[in-house]
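INFO batch 0412 | record 1 of 1 | parsing
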Amino acid sequence: MTLITRTVAQLAEMSGAILKSDNTELVVQGVMTDSRTVGGQLFVPLVGEHSDGHQHIYHAVEKGATAALWKKGVPVPEDLPHIPFLLVRDPLAALQKLAMNYRSELFTRVVAITGSNGKTTTKDMTAALLSTVYKVSKTQGNFNNHIGLPLTILALEEDTDIVVVELGMSGFGEIELLTQIAQPDVAIITNIGDAHMLQLGSRNGIAQAKLEIVHGLGDEGVFIYNGDEPLIEEEMNKLHIVSSLEKKRFGLGASNDWSAANIELDPFGSRFEVLYMGESCNVGQQHITTPGRHNVSNALAAIAVARLFGVAANLIQEGFNRLQLTGMRIAPTKAHNGAIVLNDAYNANPTATRAAIDLLGSVTGFRKKWLVLSDMLELGPDEIAMHVDMGQYATSDKVDAIITYGNLAAHIVEGAKDHFSEEQLQYFTTKEELIDWLLPHISPDDLVLVKGSRSMKMEQVVEALEKG
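INFO prediction complete | emitting tokens
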């Protein structure tokens, strides 16, 4: 349940609505868009391709809705006279305006994170470190879009010190909208990858879209970005608004403000020494339960934020110990026979998949390292070439076998043929065929990494390996 608490008159003013009720002092707590879960809240009927929330007002009232935003021109139910209706042109735009005004009334500070990869992991890490000192909230699940972000903000208790929000996008202008709603004090870009190449045309376009996040920063805002990605600075230099901001860089390169040395990786986590301005600092050695060099970089972004907010160096490791990651992001689990499985099935694009391959290449001590991949989607006209490149990147010194499923994934096998034997490469047209083949071939001392775009549902492969 969300937690904004205002009278309907206040809600009408904050959302730009005309109040249709004499009961102006009725207090409403919370906002909800799903009539199945409403209880004592303001119901916001959203209109989608296949549904119209206005049709569910009776169900919402049965569940305890005490007021409703309402689109002008849609007949107001005459048999619900006790429910105040807040009339607006567009309920979604009114929801966003309500969230923006609520955020402006709070003393809560906002950390906003975007990037092609690592947004959720960095959000989880940042919230964990800040929570050692502050009352912290964060984006839940995939509530990182034009609907989820307003609901996240409206869910804040008024004594929340800091909220860490994730900003997702697939096209130009989307981060611009989200950052105006969030009004961040700190903005982070984790990296620039290949996701949404179809919509944005190039990696430069992706960088431009991500940099929209700085438009919501005030004069005292801080911009923290991945210094290992030259496109960020290249595109940033075109934005005069960025020149006045305080900026901090993180990354694995020694020239960053926050960097790392002595990195040690295994399937269960990463160890590293934190450097500030190229020198050892009092943050010292850290251990995170997320494997991969890319996750060391994500951890450095979180450390940069924590130190900016005054979290003591000796609390950083405590924060990482508290870390609870959102699922299916290189999450270690075990197959039915004891083999280690890395569940990285939440999503996939070339940048993230290369990082997963590098992780396999960095660990030793296994009989065989299996790379199980499916299609990477929304890559635009070069999607076939990108899948071929992925097969070429997954060399035999990094992995021992490549198993794929999906129409595009066939091109991964094609790209890998030059450095693998036919026995080391397997392609299947269905997940069921892949699972049936893979199960008897895995030994207890093997390592299996499973990855694919969200719609490919590769977690089903992980579940099958766990059950046997």
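INFO post-check: The domain at 5-97 is CATH 3.40.1390.10 (Udp-n-acetylmuramoylalanyl-d-glutamate--2,6- Diaminopimelate Ligase; Chain: A, domain 1).
INFO record closed
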